[in-house]
Structure formats: C-alpha cells, structure tokens
Amino acid sequence: MKIFTLIAFIMMITSFTIKAQEGGTMDQFKINLLTPGIGYEKKLGTKGTLDLTATGYFSWVGSDTYIKPSIDIGYRYYYNILRRESRGRNIKGNSASFLIASIGYTHRNITKSKYLYNTNPIGFDCKLQWGIRRTFNWFYLEGKAGGCKQWWHHTDLNITTQEPIGFLGELTIGFLIQ
After folding, report:
1. Which superkingdom is the protein from (predicted)?
2. Which pLDDT band holds residue 19 (cuts at 50, 70, 90)?
C-alpha cells in the first residue's frame, strides 16, 4: 500500500511540473522504475546533456538475493531534437533520439551471500549506445542499445578480469520532474 501511495504522490507532483520546452534540451530529474534509481540530466547546450544516474541492480541465484549499487555518468547528444521541434513534434523531457558515451562503476553485492567468493567483484564499464526517449506528460519510456566493455576487480582474490566488448540493451521506464 505504501508503494502505491508513493507512486500516486510522485505522479501528482510531476503532472504539475512539466512545462513547455523550447530551444533543444533541458535540465530534468528522473525517477527510474525498472531498475530502481534516480537520475539527473544537466543541459550543456541545445543538443547535449550531462547524464548522471544512480541505480540498484537486483539478481537472484537460488535462494540468494544480490543488490549491487551502480553509478553512471555520460554525455548525451540529442541529434534530432531541433528537427523534431521544427516539425511541431513533442520534445518535452528531451523526447528525441540520442547517442550516449558513458562510464560506470558497480559496487560489490551489499547483501550477505554464501557465494561471496565468486559473486562479489567491483565493476567498471565504458559504453557507447544509441537510444530513443519518448515522454508522455510526466511519464517516460527509454530504450538504449550499443556496445559495452567491462572490467571486474575481485577484491577477495586481488585479480582483475576483462569481458570482451559485448552488446548491451537497456529499457527504462520512469517519471520526469523538471
């Protein structure tokens, strides 16, 4: 019941804060639902933003639950936002296609586990992705796809492993507060 009250409260607040946007990108605060977390985009020009996101990744292996906090920082280039605006399309909440280059840090598992030996590394990653965001009043849907290079440092073993460059797809659903 508390979660539904919180979601209703956030929806009520954000429905009054979305305002008209002109001239490209804008500053905005984001609340993510699928991967619980928060984010902030700071306008750096008519087509660019600095994107800072903090999330918590959840996974289950058998009876163990893993929660790994993560932080990402990146530059988003909204290459078609001015064209969308000139055609009269919705650009509220930076509703456009973009390219993003980002780096990230994933902390070790913060829950107790009987498998800490193999499942408790610290991670670093570099990502280059293409994405699209669509905003519907206070609600947004965002998809990203691209390449990712990861490094994992196993502190208990004092070794660092690398993952080959791989494909990464992300889907984000959340609320915007501007």
Report:
1. Bacteria
2. very low
